[in-house]
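**User:**
Make up any protein.

**Assistant:**
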Amino acid sequence: MMGTETLLEGFAASRRRRALFHALMLVLLVLLAGVAITLGTADLSVADAYLAVLAGLFPGQFTAPPMAENIVWNYRLHRVLFAIVAGLGLAIAGTVMQGILRNPLASPFTLGISSAAATGAAVAIVLGAGLVDGEFLIIGNAFVFALLAAGIIYAMARYRGMGAESMILAGIALMYLFSAVTSLLQYLGTSEEVQEIVFWMFGSLGRTDWTSLGIVTLIVALCTPYLIWRAWDLNALAEGDDIAESLGVPVKRSMTIFMLIASLITAAIICFTGTIGFIGLVAPHITRMAIGTDHRYLLPASGLVGALLLLGADSLARTLLAPTILPVGIMTAFLGVPFFIFLFLRGRGA
């Protein structure tokens, strides 16, 4: 009887801890978003920035200085919201990949998907070739090449025998292949083309707008509920293929679906932003340390952590060397590397 009561108390404590963590991340994200809107070369007060947001949402009921409304709605707000949605999507994609591959280093960045997108962008910049012409040439190429990488990983893993190790090996091989192709295109390109490739690979939110925000938000909003609905399958896959099959989970089909959805989310984000690493790698780790490994709670919580990390990195990128705006990919690397050094020192006994 005492053992049952202790077990129930443990479950209740875990629920409270998870609820508190979700609430804390959400509050911090809202507060940081409010601060991020005020950051920039134009000197806007917190009150003017918030009034500008309210005036845009409820015209006629709130009034704000015209300059503040123009700056917030045309330059800052979509960037802040894109950072939130992109960070959430990349973190969820990283959580899914780490779960199905049972590897703490799995992420869109380490599995070659980001490298493939960079190659697609380089092909568009240097060769001017792609499936879409005009202003969407680079974006379209990056998106197609990222999905192409996911398809090749799946095909190689299926040929070798579908499994976590096969997918990881295929992803690493593709990462080096696409990196080599990108380096070759940089060598062949002009100085202006090389500069554009390098800038794209740094990752930046400066190229986003309301249209790209709508596209990414739609894809993330459609994919995330399905992943949370299938969270039990992710839990089973994280325990191993044999255990998952014994619980009735179709391992190969589930791994394929999860991998393709995670790749779709990643491709939709990085085709607009360029390469942004470490978010899909670090956010799941932080969240597991706080609330455990149950994907029913890990997926949304990792998304909140990822959104907080990317928005924080972009806020720092806009303020550290103001008026110069640093690429956000550089800031995420600076934030991610110390965290992994901490993980290495903390877990050296393992």
